[in-house]
Input
Amino acid sequence: MNKEIIQTILLINLLLPYLAYAEASLWRVSKGNNQIYIGGTVHLLGKSDYPLPDEFEQAFREIDLLVLEADLDALSKPKAQAQIVRSLMYPNDTTLKDQIKPKTFKALERYCKANNLTITAMQKMKPAMVVLTLTMAELKRLGLADAGVDQFFLEKAKSKGKKITGLETAEAQINMLENMGKGHENELILSTIKELKKTPEFMDEMKKAWRTGNLADLEKVGIKTMRAEFPELNKSLLTNRNNTWLPKIKAMLATPERELILVGALHLAGEQGVLAQLKKHGFVVEQY
Output
Protein backbone atom coordinates (compact mmCIF):
# COMPACT_ATOMS: atom_id res chain seq x y z
CA MET A 1 0.00 0.00 0.00
CA ASN A 2 1.37 3.45 -0.90
CA LYS A 3 0.45 6.92 -2.05
CA GLU A 4 -1.44 5.56 -5.06
CA ILE A 5 -4.02 3.81 -2.91
CA ILE A 6 -4.88 7.15 -1.33
CA GLN A 7 -5.24 8.67 -4.77
CA THR A 8 -7.50 5.77 -5.69
CA ILE A 9 -9.76 6.45 -2.72
CA LEU A 10 -10.07 10.02 -3.93
CA LEU A 11 -11.44 8.76 -7.26
CA ILE A 12 -14.75 7.67 -5.72
CA ASN A 13 -16.52 10.20 -7.91
CA LEU A 14 -15.40 8.69 -11.18
CA LEU A 15 -16.07 11.71 -13.37
CA LEU A 16 -14.45 14.32 -11.20
CA PRO A 17 -10.79 13.75 -12.00
CA TYR A 18 -11.41 14.69 -15.64
CA LEU A 19 -12.10 18.29 -14.68
CA ALA A 20 -9.41 20.91 -15.05
CA TYR A 21 -9.29 24.05 -13.00
CA ALA A 22 -10.54 27.30 -14.49
CA GLU A 23 -12.26 30.47 -13.34
CA ALA A 24 -15.44 30.61 -11.24
CA SER A 25 -14.71 27.41 -9.31
CA LEU A 26 -14.95 29.12 -5.91
CA TRP A 27 -18.01 30.49 -4.10
CA ARG A 28 -18.56 32.68 -1.06
CA VAL A 29 -21.49 31.63 1.14
CA SER A 30 -22.74 34.01 3.82
CA LYS A 31 -25.49 34.97 6.23
CA GLY A 32 -25.09 38.18 8.19
CA ASN A 33 -21.48 38.67 9.21
CA ASN A 34 -20.55 35.00 8.93
CA GLN A 35 -19.14 33.53 5.75
CA ILE A 36 -17.30 30.54 4.35
CA TYR A 37 -15.73 29.63 1.02
CA ILE A 38 -16.65 26.53 -0.97
CA GLY A 39 -14.47 25.40 -3.85
CA GLY A 40 -14.97 22.65 -6.42
CA THR A 41 -11.89 20.46 -6.51
CA VAL A 42 -10.07 18.10 -8.81
CA HIS A 43 -8.63 15.14 -6.91
CA LEU A 44 -5.83 14.56 -9.42
CA LEU A 45 -4.16 17.08 -11.70
CA GLY A 46 -1.56 17.41 -14.41
CA LYS A 47 1.54 19.56 -14.13
CA SER A 48 0.04 22.05 -16.60
CA ASP A 49 -2.82 22.77 -14.14
CA TYR A 50 -0.43 24.54 -11.76
CA PRO A 51 -0.23 27.16 -10.47
CA LEU A 52 -3.82 27.12 -9.22
CA PRO A 53 -6.03 30.19 -9.70
CA ASP A 54 -5.14 33.08 -7.42
CA GLU A 55 -8.70 33.18 -6.04
CA PHE A 56 -7.99 30.00 -4.09
CA GLU A 57 -4.82 31.44 -2.65
CA GLN A 58 -6.66 34.63 -1.65
CA ALA A 59 -9.41 32.66 0.09
CA PHE A 60 -6.85 30.40 1.77
CA ARG A 61 -5.08 33.39 3.29
CA GLU A 62 -8.35 34.54 4.91
CA ILE A 63 -9.47 31.27 6.50
CA ASP A 64 -8.92 29.71 9.90
CA LEU A 65 -9.94 26.15 9.03
CA LEU A 66 -9.46 23.98 5.92
CA VAL A 67 -12.26 21.43 5.39
CA LEU A 68 -11.74 18.52 2.98
CA GLU A 69 -14.09 15.70 1.97
CA ALA A 70 -12.15 13.29 4.17
CA ASP A 71 -9.26 13.06 6.57
CA LEU A 72 -6.47 12.28 4.08
CA ASP A 73 -3.92 11.67 6.81
CA ALA A 74 -6.17 9.04 8.41
CA LEU A 75 -6.48 7.28 5.04
CA SER A 76 -2.70 6.90 4.88
CA LYS A 77 -2.39 5.15 8.26
CA PRO A 78 -1.82 1.37 8.47
CA LYS A 79 -5.24 0.72 10.05
CA ALA A 80 -7.08 2.42 7.17
CA GLN A 81 -4.90 0.77 4.54
CA ALA A 82 -5.61 -2.64 6.04
CA GLN A 83 -9.33 -1.87 5.92
CA ILE A 84 -9.00 -0.89 2.26
CA VAL A 85 -7.45 -4.27 1.47
CA ARG A 86 -10.20 -6.11 3.37
CA SER A 87 -12.92 -4.07 1.66
CA LEU A 88 -11.70 -3.98 -1.94
CA MET A 89 -9.82 -7.25 -2.43
CA TYR A 90 -11.24 -10.80 -2.53
CA PRO A 91 -10.23 -13.14 0.28
CA ASN A 92 -8.75 -16.62 -0.05
CA ASP A 93 -9.20 -18.25 -3.48
CA THR A 94 -12.04 -16.02 -4.72
CA THR A 95 -11.22 -14.19 -7.96
CA LEU A 96 -12.81 -11.51 -10.10
CA LYS A 97 -13.44 -14.03 -12.89
CA ASP A 98 -15.60 -16.05 -10.48
CA GLN A 99 -17.74 -13.04 -9.59
CA ILE A 100 -18.57 -11.38 -12.92
CA LYS A 101 -20.13 -12.61 -16.14
CA PRO A 102 -17.89 -14.24 -18.79
CA LYS A 103 -18.89 -11.49 -21.25
CA THR A 104 -17.72 -8.82 -18.82
CA PHE A 105 -14.45 -10.58 -18.10
CA LYS A 106 -13.70 -10.99 -21.81
CA ALA A 107 -14.40 -7.29 -22.41
CA LEU A 108 -12.02 -6.45 -19.56
CA GLU A 109 -9.38 -8.76 -21.02
CA ARG A 110 -9.64 -7.07 -24.41
CA TYR A 111 -9.39 -3.60 -22.85
CA CYS A 112 -6.36 -4.56 -20.78
CA LYS A 113 -4.59 -6.09 -23.78
CA ALA A 114 -5.26 -3.01 -25.92
CA ASN A 115 -3.95 -0.70 -23.20
CA ASN A 116 -0.93 -2.71 -22.02
CA LEU A 117 -2.48 -3.55 -18.66
CA THR A 118 -2.10 -6.87 -16.84
CA ILE A 119 -5.44 -8.46 -16.02
CA THR A 120 -3.72 -10.98 -13.75
CA ALA A 121 -3.07 -8.17 -11.26
CA MET A 122 -6.83 -7.46 -11.17
CA GLN A 123 -7.95 -10.99 -10.40
CA LYS A 124 -8.03 -10.36 -6.65
CA MET A 125 -9.70 -6.94 -6.99
CA LYS A 126 -13.39 -6.39 -6.45
CA PRO A 127 -15.19 -4.57 -9.30
CA ALA A 128 -15.05 -1.15 -7.62
CA MET A 129 -11.27 -1.45 -7.29
CA VAL A 130 -10.98 -2.66 -10.89
CA VAL A 131 -12.88 0.39 -12.14
CA LEU A 132 -10.73 2.76 -10.14
CA THR A 133 -7.55 1.04 -11.31
CA LEU A 134 -8.60 1.39 -14.95
CA THR A 135 -9.45 5.04 -14.37
CA MET A 136 -6.12 5.73 -12.69
CA ALA A 137 -4.24 4.08 -15.55
CA GLU A 138 -6.01 6.22 -18.14
CA LEU A 139 -5.40 9.39 -16.15
CA LYS A 140 -1.71 8.52 -15.93
CA ARG A 141 -1.62 7.98 -19.67
CA LEU A 142 -3.08 11.44 -20.18
CA GLY A 143 -0.70 13.03 -17.68
CA LEU A 144 -3.43 13.73 -15.10
CA ALA A 145 -2.29 11.71 -12.12
CA ASP A 146 -0.33 14.22 -10.04
CA ALA A 147 -1.45 15.36 -6.60
CA GLY A 148 -4.69 17.29 -6.73
CA VAL A 149 -6.13 20.38 -5.12
CA ASP A 150 -7.04 18.59 -1.88
CA GLN A 151 -3.52 17.35 -1.25
CA PHE A 152 -2.00 20.67 -2.34
CA PHE A 153 -3.94 22.69 0.21
CA LEU A 154 -3.61 20.02 2.89
CA GLU A 155 0.17 20.37 2.76
CA LYS A 156 -0.11 24.15 2.59
CA ALA A 157 -2.40 24.24 5.64
CA LYS A 158 0.04 22.10 7.59
CA SER A 159 2.94 24.38 6.72
CA LYS A 160 0.96 27.48 7.73
CA GLY A 161 -0.34 25.98 10.96
CA LYS A 162 -3.99 26.19 9.93
CA LYS A 163 -6.54 23.79 11.40
CA ILE A 164 -7.71 20.91 9.20
CA THR A 165 -10.77 18.67 9.32
CA GLY A 166 -12.88 16.46 7.06
CA LEU A 167 -16.59 16.23 6.28
CA GLU A 168 -16.32 12.43 6.38
CA THR A 169 -14.26 9.88 8.27
CA ALA A 170 -11.81 7.56 6.56
CA GLU A 171 -14.11 4.65 7.45
CA ALA A 172 -17.09 6.31 5.75
CA GLN A 173 -15.12 6.82 2.53
CA ILE A 174 -13.89 3.23 2.47
CA ASN A 175 -17.36 1.82 3.18
CA MET A 176 -18.85 3.93 0.40
CA LEU A 177 -16.20 2.76 -2.02
CA GLU A 178 -16.77 -0.87 -1.06
CA ASN A 179 -20.46 -0.53 -1.91
CA MET A 180 -19.96 1.41 -5.15
CA GLY A 181 -22.02 -0.20 -7.90
CA LYS A 182 -23.09 -3.06 -5.66
CA GLY A 183 -25.59 -5.24 -7.47
CA HIS A 184 -24.55 -3.74 -10.83
CA GLU A 185 -20.93 -4.81 -10.97
CA ASN A 186 -21.00 -6.01 -14.59
CA GLU A 187 -22.69 -2.86 -15.83
CA LEU A 188 -20.21 -0.71 -13.89
CA ILE A 189 -17.17 -2.39 -15.45
CA LEU A 190 -18.60 -2.38 -18.99
CA SER A 191 -19.74 1.24 -18.74
CA THR A 192 -16.33 2.32 -17.44
CA ILE A 193 -14.52 0.60 -20.32
CA LYS A 194 -16.85 2.33 -22.79
CA GLU A 195 -16.53 5.78 -21.22
CA LEU A 196 -12.77 5.69 -20.73
CA LYS A 197 -12.38 5.51 -24.49
CA LYS A 198 -14.08 8.93 -24.67
CA THR A 199 -11.94 10.57 -22.02
CA PRO A 200 -10.25 13.24 -24.22
CA GLU A 201 -13.60 14.41 -25.65
CA PHE A 202 -15.19 14.33 -22.22
CA MET A 203 -12.36 16.44 -20.81
CA ASP A 204 -12.90 19.10 -23.46
CA GLU A 205 -16.63 19.30 -22.72
CA MET A 206 -16.07 19.54 -18.99
CA LYS A 207 -13.42 22.24 -19.36
CA LYS A 208 -15.73 24.34 -21.52
CA ALA A 209 -18.61 23.96 -19.06
CA TRP A 210 -16.35 24.82 -16.13
CA ARG A 211 -14.78 27.87 -17.77
CA THR A 212 -18.24 29.43 -18.09
CA GLY A 213 -18.94 28.89 -14.41
CA ASN A 214 -22.28 27.45 -15.48
CA LEU A 215 -23.43 24.87 -12.94
CA ALA A 216 -26.31 23.80 -15.21
CA ASP A 217 -23.84 22.88 -17.95
CA LEU A 218 -21.64 21.12 -15.42
CA GLU A 219 -24.62 19.04 -14.32
CA LYS A 220 -25.55 18.24 -17.92
CA VAL A 221 -22.07 17.07 -18.86
CA GLY A 222 -20.98 15.44 -15.61
CA ILE A 223 -24.05 14.15 -13.79
CA LYS A 224 -26.87 13.52 -16.26
CA THR A 225 -25.58 10.21 -17.64
CA MET A 226 -24.70 8.77 -14.24
CA ARG A 227 -28.09 9.78 -12.86
CA ALA A 228 -29.89 8.13 -15.80
CA GLU A 229 -27.84 4.93 -16.09
CA PHE A 230 -26.78 4.43 -12.48
CA PRO A 231 -29.31 6.23 -10.24
CA GLU A 232 -28.25 4.35 -7.11
CA LEU A 233 -24.61 5.17 -7.74
CA ASN A 234 -25.48 8.83 -8.27
CA LYS A 235 -27.45 8.77 -5.04
CA SER A 236 -24.69 7.18 -2.98
CA LEU A 237 -21.79 9.16 -4.43
CA LEU A 238 -23.43 12.57 -4.68
CA THR A 239 -26.95 13.11 -3.30
CA ASN A 240 -26.67 11.22 -0.01
CA ARG A 241 -23.31 12.73 0.78
CA ASN A 242 -24.50 16.25 -0.06
CA ASN A 243 -27.41 15.78 2.34
CA THR A 244 -25.09 14.48 5.06
CA TRP A 245 -22.69 17.39 4.63
CA LEU A 246 -25.33 20.12 4.62
CA PRO A 247 -25.95 20.28 8.42
CA LYS A 248 -22.21 20.33 9.02
CA ILE A 249 -21.73 23.19 6.57
CA LYS A 250 -24.63 25.13 8.08
CA ALA A 251 -23.08 24.69 11.52
CA MET A 252 -19.83 26.18 10.21
CA LEU A 253 -21.80 29.17 8.94
CA ALA A 254 -23.07 29.77 12.46
CA THR A 255 -19.58 30.41 13.84
CA PRO A 256 -17.30 33.45 13.47
CA GLU A 257 -14.50 31.16 12.31
CA ARG A 258 -13.96 31.28 8.54
CA GLU A 259 -13.60 28.01 6.60
CA LEU A 260 -12.52 26.96 3.12
CA ILE A 261 -14.42 23.81 2.14
CA LEU A 262 -13.00 21.84 -0.79
CA VAL A 263 -15.19 19.12 -2.31
CA GLY A 264 -15.43 17.38 -5.68
CA ALA A 265 -16.89 19.80 -8.21
CA LEU A 266 -19.99 17.76 -9.06
CA HIS A 267 -21.14 18.07 -5.46
CA LEU A 268 -21.82 21.74 -6.23
CA ALA A 269 -24.02 21.27 -9.32
CA GLY A 270 -27.74 20.53 -9.71
CA GLU A 271 -30.80 20.97 -7.53
CA GLN A 272 -29.42 18.47 -5.03
CA GLY A 273 -26.02 20.12 -5.07
CA VAL A 274 -24.57 21.79 -1.99
CA LEU A 275 -24.84 25.32 -3.37
CA ALA A 276 -28.49 25.04 -4.46
CA GLN A 277 -29.45 23.58 -1.09
CA LEU A 278 -27.69 26.36 0.79
CA LYS A 279 -29.62 28.91 -1.29
CA LYS A 280 -32.88 27.16 -0.35
CA HIS A 281 -31.95 27.54 3.29
CA GLY A 282 -31.59 31.29 2.93
CA PHE A 283 -27.83 31.68 2.57
CA VAL A 284 -26.31 34.10 0.09
CA VAL A 285 -24.23 32.24 -2.51
CA GLU A 286 -22.01 34.20 -4.89
CA GLN A 287 -19.06 33.36 -7.08
CA TYR A 288 -15.81 34.58 -5.56
